[in-house]
Amino acid sequence: MCKYNLPPGPRPWPVIGNLNLIGSLPHRSIHELSKHYGPYMSLRLGSFPVVVGSSINAARFILKTNDQAFIDRPRTASGKYIHYNYSDMLCAPYGAYWRQARKLFQTEILSARQLSMLEDVRVEEVRAMLTDLHAAASTGHTIVLKDHLHMVSLNVISRMVLGKKYVVEEEASGSPVTPAEFRWMINEGFFLSGVLNAGEHNNRRRQEGQRFVAKDMVDLLLQLSDDPNLEVPIDRDGVKSFILDLIGAGTDTSSVTVEWAMSELLKAPEALAKATEELDHVIGGDRFVTEADIPSLPYVEAIVKERCGCTRSGRF
């Protein structure tokens, strides 16, 4: 059995390792432990050994100096059985397939041109959310902002990726699922069993033939997978795994980031007042803010960049 020269860390317990030291806010627990054990420390999360780097120099050493050594993901059961045998961006091993997938995401799926084509979707859903917020405010009851943010995030992502809404607030509205059910499906990976599939997109492609135009990201993924010039072929499992990446990564992360931004602004009234003043000066009170207005709103843009850089929107 190999014995590694590991950095210092707390003594692990049998079975649970150091999980007893990780609280409900794991990043804060890790920060407190790093004060005692230093910027590099060893932990055991159950039976899994983990080395934690928690300083600027440690991050630079791991993510920049030795990025090639740390770039791979561990082989897990979820990667094999839920993520279609490691065929998505999250679980795929570093190599030609992963590099090609990253390039396709950057230059095709999430390109400026593609996102611009889908701007109307984002505009419609954000305006619908604002209408709902005004209606909720008129009742005099407390508004739970995160519920509205999560709803608009789900609807934007499902329309951009799949071409239609999968959730609405009213259960009797004809929606396939409720917001709570859809969120559970995302968390559990349940939709991989067929709740969400690309079959209807294939049917439309066959019916329209040469007249077919991609209307959403699934259409685009199917077109890209048929490209004979790809360095590594992408099969239908690969397409479905990329759908999983787009939906899973674009829901909670977006809504949580906006929720944190609103929370921080409410705690900093001076910043909120300055942002409001800039919006009133540039936009006025007669129209909505558009994505084209962002370059003219440097203070608001700085707030967005600050939150995106500081907020832990993903899971630990």
Keywords, separated by commas or semicolons:
heme binding, iron ion binding, 316 residues, oxidoreductase activity, acting on paired donors, with incorporation or reduction of molecular oxygen, oxidoreductase, 3 domains, two-stranded antiparallel ribbon, 2 strands
Task: Write up what this structure looks like.
It is built from 15 helices and two strands. The chain has a two-stranded antiparallel sheet with strand order 1-2. A hairpin with a 2-residue loop joins strand 1 and strand 2 (48-53). By secondary structure, the chain is mainly α. The chain has three domains: 1-71, no CATH class; 107-250, no CATH class; 257-310, no CATH class. It has helices spanning 26-37, 56-65, 67-70, 77-81, 96-109, 112-117, 119-137, 145-162, 179-188, 199-208, 217-225, 236-250, 252-266, 269-282, 298-310; strands at residues 40-45, 48-53. It starts with 25 loop residues before the first helix and ends in a 6-residue tail after the last helix. Pfam families: p450. One of its GO terms (biological process) is secondary metabolite biosynthetic process. Belongs to the cytochrome P450 family. GO terms for molecular function: heme binding; iron ion binding; monooxygenase activity; oxidoreductase activity, acting on paired donors, with incorporation or reduction of molecular oxygen. Keywords: Heme, Iron, Metal-binding, Oxidoreductase.
